[in-house]
């Protein structure tokens, strides 16, 4: 059985790697073939130079994604069949004899090693591609400060949570996975509630919206759509990137609306209202709730499967591990599962694109569709989003509809 599982893993890993590289190559080639002409829907709002800059930016990101895919494959093989996890398990066992401390140290060490291995890709993305195309605004000093803070927060929150999960796996019997799911779900909800007011301010400054005219327009939209929030805030996103964005965060009475300062600088009040109406559409259509419920359901299924595998010797042996234990099973499972589930990515992308269309339809009913069109065109241009994605790549990956299709959908309201 172990040999069969090894072969299935190798097959799935190769399939996933080939799919990622093939789709990235298709995207690169398709964007290059459309580089010389602006799509007709954008010819009046974008210069050829801007279109070509977006094409070059997206091709550069795709080339880096190929390197990332190769690195991910090497890491997965190195950790499993290459003996990396077994070596780190033995090493952490030399540091701690207590089972709980041993398991916690092992997971922490594995996380540290994999983070360091993938760090060069992240650094090149930020200080290479993003800088070359004029998006990166973060300094090395701020980057290091963010990294230290993230690490300290991860230690303060992550290690106790990890120890609790491993403890439950050890003492809860055959239904440990149900207890772990309950703890994880509760922790996730707490993070949604407390992240906006406790953690996010450690990295960015959030100030109440001061533009009274814009604030009145937004409050009128909130009133007629029946949305209550803790406030409307502006985030200093410009100190890290020139990309613009807006989002909701929190839930219940802790909901708040956040605009990047870069977005407010580029859009008119009417366009900002239209963008907010789109985000409100996600709330009114219960997309956020549906995503949370889907995430909880999938995590329950994953933990149930892990509960079946945790005592199966072939699961460990097939992945090149001779030892057994809750911590090893946890790391092994979440190393292996992405390899097998990657081909299902289009299902999540399809659901997300449908929700984006629904949110756009809501925005059309509450605001002028022209305002949302103008806002989207500006965001596509300023964020250097590709207007010409490869259709197959888009079906597989894109959480939002392609620009031309989305604009055409919005224009239907104007005819």
Written description of the protein model:
The protein has 415 residues and is mainly α. It folds into two domains: 2-201 and 289-341, no CATH class; 205-286 and 348-414, Metalloproteases ("zincins"), catalytic domain (Zincin-like). It contains 16 helices and four strands. The chain has helices at 2-33, 48-79, 84-95, 99-132, 140-171, 176-199, 212-225, 261-266, 269-284, 287-309, 313-317, 326-341, 345-366, 369-382, 391-397, 403-411; strands at residues 206-208, 232-235, 246-249, 256-260. The chain has a four-stranded mixed sheet with strand order 1-2-4-3.
Tell me the structural class: mainly alpha
What's the helix count? 16
Major sheet characteristics: 4 strands, mixed
- Relative strand content: under 5%
Q: Flag low-confidence runs.
A: none
- The helix fraction, in percent, is over 70%
Strand order of the largest sheet: 1-2-4-3
- How far apart the termini lie comes to 62 Å
The domain count comes to 2
Quick rundown:
The chain is mostly helical.
Features:
Zincin-like; mainly alpha; single chain; 16 helices
Secondary-structure map with pairings?
Elements: H1 2-33, H2 48-79, H3 84-95, H4 99-132, H5 140-171, H6 176-199, E1 206-208, H7 212-225, E2 232-235, E3 246-249, E4 256-260, H8 261-266, H9 269-284, H10 287-309, H11 313-317, H12 326-341, H13 345-366, H14 369-382, H15 391-397, H16 403-411
Parallel strand pairs: 2-4
Antiparallel strand pairs: 1-2, 3-4
């Amino acid at each position: 059985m172990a040999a069969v599982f090894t072969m299935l893993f190798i097959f799935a890993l190769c399939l996933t790697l080939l799919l990622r590289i093939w789709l990235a190559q298709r995207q690169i080639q398709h964007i290059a073939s459309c580089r010389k002409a602006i799509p007709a829907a954008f010819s009046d709002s974008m210069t050829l130079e801007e279109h070509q800059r977006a094409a070059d930016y997206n091709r550069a990101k795709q080339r880096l994604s190929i390197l990332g895919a190769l690195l991910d494959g090497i890491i997965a093989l190195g950790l499993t069949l290459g003996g990396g996890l077994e070596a780190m398990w033995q090493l952490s066992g030399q540091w701690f004899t207590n089972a709980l401390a041993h398991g916690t140290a092992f997971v922490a060490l594995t996380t540290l090693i994999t983070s360091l291995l993938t760090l060069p890709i992240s650094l090149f993305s930020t200080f290479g591609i993003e800088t070359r195309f004029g998006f990166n605004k973060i300094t090395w000093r701020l980057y290091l400060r963010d990294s230290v803070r993230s690490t300290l927060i991860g230690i303060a929150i992550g290690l106790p949570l990890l120890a609790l999960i491993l403890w439950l796996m050890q003492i809860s019997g055959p239904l440990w996975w149900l207890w772990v799911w309950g703890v994880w779900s509760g922790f996730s909800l707490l993070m949604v509630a407390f992240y906006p007011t406790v953690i996010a301010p450690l990295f960015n400054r959030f100030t109440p919206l001061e533009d009274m005219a814009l604030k009145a327009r937004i409050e009128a939209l909130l009133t007629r759509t029946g949305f209550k929030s803790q406030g409307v805030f502006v985030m200093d996103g410009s100190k890290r990137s020139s990309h613009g964005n807006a989002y909701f965060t929190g839930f219940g009475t802790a909901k708040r609306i956040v605009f990047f300062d870069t977005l407010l600088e580029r859009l008119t009040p009417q366009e900002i209202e239209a963008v907010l109406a789109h985000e409100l559409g996600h709330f009114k259509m219960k997309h956020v709730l549906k995503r949370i419920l889907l995430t909880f359901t999938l995590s329950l299924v994953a933990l149930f499967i892990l509960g079946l595998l945790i005592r199966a010797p072939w699961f460990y042996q097939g992945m090149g591990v001779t030892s057994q234990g809750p911590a090893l099973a946890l790391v092994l499972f979440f190393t292996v599962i992405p390899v097998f589930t990657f081909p299902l990515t289009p299902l999540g992308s399809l659901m997300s694109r449908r929700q984006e269309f629904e949110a756009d339809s809501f925005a059309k009913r509450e605001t002028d569709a022209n305002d949302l069109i103008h806002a989207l065109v500006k965001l596509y241009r300023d964020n250097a989003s590709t207007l010409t994605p490869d259709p197959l790549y888009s079906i597989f990956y894109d959480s939002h509809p392609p620009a031309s299709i989305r604009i055409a959908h919005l224009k239907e309201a104007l005819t």
